[in-house]
Amino acid sequence: MSRSGEFCPRCGDPVEAPEERPDLPGEVDSGLCDACYFEEFALVDAPDTVEVQVCSRCGAVHRGNRWVDVGAEDYTDVAVEEVSGALGVHVDATDVGWEVAPEQVDENTIRMHCEFTGVVRGTFVTEEAVVPVRIARETCDRCGRIAGGSYASLVQVRADERPPTDGELARAREIAEAYIADREATGDRNAFITEVTEVPDGLDMKISTNQMGGGIAKRIVAQLGGGFEDHETLVTEDGDGNEVYRVTYAVRLPRYRPGEVIDPEDGDGPVLVRSVQGNLKGVRLASGDAYEASFEDSDAPEARRLGTREEAQETTVVAVEDEHAVQVLDPETCEARTVARPDYLDPDADEVPVLKSRAGLHVVPERDSEA
């Protein structure tokens, strides 16, 4: 018999007073005896089904009021997480644990077999539930914008007085993709490239936002040289009547590129271009002295193009005449020719690369000696 004189209001059996049951958490129905309490007790409140909205293009998952990139190859882990968030565990339970065994029913259905354990009123309880997860495939806002051709800025890659090389265009595209990838890695779902188009004189890239278009233009110039200008075009007004502009970033790569041989026609002979970052820098083929364009000329001094380092041919060194001259074989006529001996020429070399142009025959640096 209860020492406190209390009885279960449902069955009339005596019950111990709450102060005599430290395992009771003080729940509203703590006056019930254990038998009546567990008769209607449910450890877990599980939904009949859970629906997961998934973008069929990029695989993002819709959570709350936004799309989230989860990077999942399949959606089993996503299903487990969604089911976990949808479950309600009884407030009286302590030491709660659960295990789940997912069953892939078909492409869009995962059946979650769940087993829950906990301690209630000092009693270990266990409960099982099966929760179907439906995968609803949709198109997220970002993919919808891409599919619709939406973009806010246009990055145009061109070169000064020449067509860009295939290597320059490929590098510009890599720079843009790496920039967007960096932004995506921070969770920015507004970062994307809508379209990349090769045109006769360069490359056009449609970018999601004006800020990202500007960031890409700056990176291309920082790595490939040159400069850029931006031009705004009014395209529409938003719902609040604010003007919306599309910005074109016109990137202009340098007139000359590393590896080209040019003649500034200043009396000191041709120059092998080594850098176009800031002012053009190179090396004189006649002497080996360093060359740097003036501040006014920057990366585009007036000069004649003579060829490229790649067009140089290996030829035989006949004799080193003195510190200023060396005799080599003309690679076309095989005649011995006396040419200028630059500082970078190895006097013990049997062969050297030479470039023949309208400015004459010049020894060029070995590739692995170019900084």
Task: Give descriptors for this structure.
single chain, 371 residues, alpha+beta, 3 domains, five-stranded mixed sheet, five-stranded antiparallel sheet, 5 helices, 25 strands, elongated
Class by helix and strand content? Answer: alpha+beta
In round numbers, the mean pLDDT is 86
Portion of residues in helices?
Answer: 10-25%
What's the helix count? 5
Describe the main β-sheet briefly. 5 strands, mixed
Distance between the termini: 97 Å
Q: Uncertain runs with pLDDT below 50, 5 residues or more?
A: none
Q: Could you tell me the radius of gyration in angstroms?
A: 38 Å
- Tell me the β content: 35-45%
Task: Give your account of this protein's structure.
The protein is α+β, with helices and mostly antiparallel strands and 371 residues long. It folds into 3 domains: 21-138, no CATH class; 149-253; 260-369, no CATH class. 16% of the residues lie in helices and 42% in strands. It has 5 helices and 25 strands. It has helices at residues 34-39, 76-86, 141-147, 166-185, 210-224, and strands spanning 6-7, 14-15, 44-45, 50-55, 61-63, 66-68, 88-89, 94-106, 109-120, 123-138, 153-159, 193-199, 202-207, 227-237, 243-253, 260-263, 271-275, 281-284, 290-292, 304-308, 313-322, 325-329, 336-340, 351-357, 360-363. The protein has a 5-stranded mixed beta sheet. The chain has a 5-stranded antiparallel beta sheet with strand order 19-18-17-16-20, with no helix packed on it. A hairpin with a 5-residue loop joins strand 17 (271-275) and strand 18 (281-284). Helix 4 crosses helix 5 (210-224). The N and C termini lie far apart (97 Å). The mean pLDDT is 86.
